[in-house]
Design a protein that fits this description.
Blueprint (H helix, E strand, L loop, with lengths): L5 H17 L5 E5 L5 H9 L4 E6 L4 H10 L9 E2 L13 E5 L7 H14 L5 E6 L1 E2 L7 H13 L6 E2 H10 L2 E9 L3 E8 L3
Parallel strand pairs: 1-2, 1-4, 2-3, 4-5, 6-7
Antiparallel strand pairs: 5-9, 8-9
Helix pairs in contact: 1-2
Length: 197
């Protein structure tokens, strides 16, 4: 039931270093694709001013619950089911975080996810997305190219996304890129802000 991801342990501190700054004035965060639940269990206690809402497809909820139960206070909220192919639940959040999801789901699912985030966030809301991206259609490292080949071999509709396409898509839904942070292991942490207001 409780699953473990080694990359989650390796990347949590570099991600946290950015999130504690960009989420400093936030109140509620929706995490999309919480996976094992490790990030939620690690970030929520260290960001006690936040209400951290983990979410994922139904199959992943038991692991997220296990990590939540063992987390120190303040724990993340009870995880909720969220499928990007269905309407998002009505939540009052002013931030969204997702890690290693855009290259797992198909591009049409990326489009639906970002459209839903644009609808969900109020003006000034923050969207933070972590993962590996291509720049100008090129991989940033041989390891990323190998990883992308593995992803596409497993599911041809998945794969690393062109950062320019993600930025353009986000802009269509009122989400403007504010930061592109270099992270360990050739990953990035992109920070968008909802316009208006």
């Amino acid at each position: 039931m409780k699953r473990y991801s080694d990359p989650c342990d390796r990347n949590r501190d570099p991600i946290f270093h950015i999130l504690k700054r960009v989420f400093a004035d936030r109140r509620g965060v929706l995490e999309i694709g919480s996976g094992t639940g490790q990030h939620a269990a690690y970030f929520a206690p260290q960001l006690p001013h936040l209400s951290w809402q983990p979410s994922d497809v139904a199959d992943n909820l038991p692991s997220i619950r296990s990590w939540r139960e063992e987390a120190p206070e303040p724990r993340p909220l009870e995880p909720i089911e969220l499928d990007v192919d269905r309407p998002f639940p009505a939540l009052e959040v002013d931030a969204v975080f997702t890690a290693n999801t855009l290259h797992i789901v198909s591009w049409p699912q990326v489009e639906r996810m970002i459209a839903a985030i644009g609808e969900l966030l109020p003006a000034g809301g923050v969207f933070a997305v972590y993962g590996a991206f291509k720049y100008g259609g090129e991989y940033t490292a041989p390891s990323n190219e190998e990883f992308d080949a593995w992803l596409r071999g497993r599911d041809p509709s998945s794969g690393q996304r062109d950062v320019e396409a993600v930025i353009a898509l986000a802009k269509e839904h009122g989400l403007v890129l504010e930061e592109d942070n270099a992270m360990p292991a050739n990953n990035r942490l992109l920070i968008f802000r909802k316009t208006g207001g």
